[in-house]
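Intended use. Records like the one below are meant for learning the mapping from a protein sequence to its folded structure. Do not use them to infer anything beyond what is encoded.
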Amino acid sequence: MRIVVFALVVGLLCSDGAFARERLNLHLAFGHRTPLYGSLADRFVAEVGERSARRLRLRVHEPGAIVPRFAYLDAVAQGALDAAWGTPAVLAGRAPDAVLFTGVPFGLGPAEHLVWVRDGAGRPLYDALYARFGVVGIPCVAIGPDGLAWLRKPLDDAAPFRGLRVRAFGLTARILDGLGATTAVAFGADLTIGLATGAFDGAEVGVPAADFAYGLHEVAPIYLYPSPLQPATLLDVVVNRDRWDRLDPEARATLDAACRAAAAFAEGANREANAAALL
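Structure written out for the chain above:
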């Protein structure tokens, strides 16, 4: 009987239904304490562990632990990192088409935008974008809308953004630049300090929950919300191409399923966290 049981266990472990234990180093572009941007990464990591019965583990690295916050794409492509949690927005300055996947001004809301990228006509374009940079992308969750800006003083009616220094990126930055603003990229506490010291006239981290977590409301009294320029923000996972090819098909499927589960959770979490912040 013991021989039969042992043979059965060995057979199960060697079957196609079980994959070898794997560990991936995962860079976070957003710290795990950042509402939604980071907390949903925690959800994704937990889903991967549960769905793989801990056979696939993600070793999480906070922003700056290995590479700067948004400088992860080349590190993933070159194999210094296995994977990263971030946003296609990091490619805005290198690939003009990347802005289509970040969230389009006057475009789709979070749920609709995610479906378009993940399951719709946007997926071949999304895959082709990342293939050019040597990585595989997995559309994970979408949140939003962002606020347009926290302001230190009211806008001028005649030329609202002329001469203002504003935090923005992608198509939003191009639109605001066209309206006379000067835009720059920053994130988190740097924005709070920038608003308080006058380095920025207007700024937003992203969705209201993140803005309030970083205290932007304490240094700028005027909030323009929601922003028609950023109705949705896509958060995704990118994996080194060679590392992806070496993963068992079931491990790849686990990563995709974990993203889909995180997306389902994010729909309610996005509404609840932002509503609570605005109360």
